[in-house]
Amino acid sequence: MRKDSRLSRVLHALAHMSHLGRAVTSEEMGKMLNTNPVVVRRTMALLKKAGYITSVKGHNGGWSLIGELSEITLLDIHRALGEPTIFTIGLSDEHTECLIEKAINESLSGVMDEAQSLMLRRFGEITLDLIANITPPSE
């Protein structure tokens, strides 16, 4: 299963947006994140729908933060991205009638649910200003 790096990439983009203090184009973000501007637009649209950013078309346009990073948590962004799966570890479902497989899946499921619950709880405690708290580069 392929890892989902959207959360860390979006956090990277939001931190840059905050430090730059101006609208940032999809092309600029694409260069920052080493990805295609179409991917940036698709992802930023999710944050816009959730109310964390806005966009302006045309000359001097781009994506801008609506509020302060101190008002947004990792959990907020995780939810805006559609709550992607936290872990890529999967349970076996090839032998659904096998008692051993059922016991293993039950054990793994409980541990993974507990770990995910803890992670999401911590995500709700961390605001974006805490992770973007670096001195902005001078322009």
Strand order of the largest sheet: 1-2
Tell me about the biggest sheet? 2 strands, antiparallel
Low-confidence stretches: none
Radius of gyration: 19 Å
Overall 3D form: elongated
Q: Report the helical percentage.
A: 40-55%
Give the helix tally: 6
Number of strands: 2
The end-to-end distance, rounded to whole angstroms, is 40 Å
SSE order, one letter for each helix or strand: HHHEEHHH
Output the CATH topology of the domain at 6-86. Answer: Arc Repressor Mutant, subunit A
CATH class of the domain at 6-86: Mainly Alpha
Q: β content, as a range? A: 5-15%
CATH homologous superfamily caption of the domain at 6-86: Winged helix-like DNA-binding domain superfamily/Winged helix DNA-binding domain
| Average predicted confidence as pLDDT | 87
Written overview of the protein:
The chain has 139 residues and is mostly helical. It has a domain at 6-86: Arc Repressor Mutant, subunit A, CATH 1.10.10. 52% of the residues lie in helices and 6% in strands. It has six helices and two strands, in the order αααββααα. It has helices at residues 6-20, 26-33, 37-49, 74-80, 99-123, 128-131; strands spanning 53-56, 62-65. Strands 1-2 form a two-stranded antiparallel sheet. Helix 2 (26-33) crosses helix 3 and helix 4 (74-80) crosses helix 5 (99-123). The radius of gyration is 19 Å and the shape is elongated. The termini are far apart. The mean pLDDT is 87.
